Amino acid sequence: MARCTAPVEGHRSASAAAACPACRGRYRGGYSSYSYSSLGSYSSPSNSSSGRSAGGSGSSARPRWSPAGSSVSYTPAEVRALTPIRETVEKLTLLPERRDFFLCHAWDDRAGAAKELYDQLQSRGVSVWFSEVDVRLGTQLLREIDKGLAKSRVGIVLVTPALLLRLQGESIADKELSVLLARDQLVPIVHGTTYEALRDVSPMLASRSGLSTVEKPMTVVASKLAELIAP
Q1: Is residue 102 within 8 Å of 148, Cβ to Cβ?
Q2: Cα separations (Å) of 71 from 35, 152, 187, 213?
Q3: Contact in structure between 39 and 6 (CB atoms under 8 Å)
Q4: Taking a C-beta distance cutoff of 8 angstroms, is the pair 231, 125 a contact?
Q5: Between β-strands 128-129 and 99-104, what pairing exists: parallel, antiparallel or unpaired?
Q6: Which residue from 15, 34, 153, 163 puts its CA 20 to 30 A from 108's CA?
Q7: Of the candidates 46, 36, 50, 49, the residue with the CA atom closest to the CA atom of residue 4
Q8: Integer CA distances (angstroms), 68 to 82, 160, 222, in order
């Protein structure tokens, strides 16, 4: 069966259309009778099918867990980074009394970026262990954190300048991070800083691919996290 040459060579002239082994029978002496609209079955390959990392903001891919009709776009690199997390989530779905996320953050971000991310996730029906809400007065902080870690499906580490500063010394966030790094359930969220700055402080955490608010706002990051743990 003759194949159309338009996807490779184009039909930019009457002679090109007439020379195509698949289309010359439909050519009637005028190039205006032929257009790319007749090639409706053809679409150019995208990076999402080739599995290549995103070469720019224009590259996009659709993960298998993203629901039909979702307006959230992902880069191929984000899909590769989040796929193992999704597989872990699916294994833990049947376990009772589990929070969707454990939010690890710097103390200084508790009323700022961490609260913003928590509120964005809560508004999407996502359950989050957040120290500002879940640690009650009179309880032992480290014990409550330990229980929160044990009962959460996925850990989020909100990487901010404040967290980088805390990780250079001994802090509670450092202890939380040590536990989360031992699991395949960790999503770094880089906010207000860069992976390069994180690498200088924690090469192990920087080696984990995650999400960033450099190009997309916190609302988009929250939507991706919500889709990640959706049934």
Answers
A1: yes
A2: 30, 27, 21, 17
A3: yes
A4: no
A5: parallel
A6: 153
A7: 36
A8: 18, 33, 18
Residue-level pLDDT, tens digit, the chain, 231 residues: 455 544 444 444 455 555 665 555 544 444 333 333 333 333 333 333 333 333 344 588 889 999 988 999 999 999 999 998 898 888 776 556 678 999 999 999 999 999 999 999 999 999 999 999 998 888 887 888 898 898 898 999 999 999 999 888 777 787 888 888 887 789 999 999 999 999 999 999 999 989 999 989 999 999 999 999 988
Cβ atoms 134, 105 nearer than 8 A: no
| DSSP alpha helix (H) spans, 170-231 | 172-181, 195-201, 203-206, 218-229
Task: Tell me the H-state helices in 72-201.
Answer: 76-92, 113-122, 131-134, 141-150, 161-167, 172-181, 195-201
Predicted confidence at residue 58, as pLDDT, reads 53
Identify the structural domains of the chain with CATH numbers, from first to last: 6-39 (no CATH), 47-229 (3.40.50.10140)
The neighbouring-strand residues paired with 156 are 103, 187
Other beta carbons within 10 Å of 166 = 21
Q: Are 47 and 59 in contact (CB under 8 A)?
A: yes
In whole angstroms, what is the distance from residue 198 CA to residue 184 CA? Answer: 19
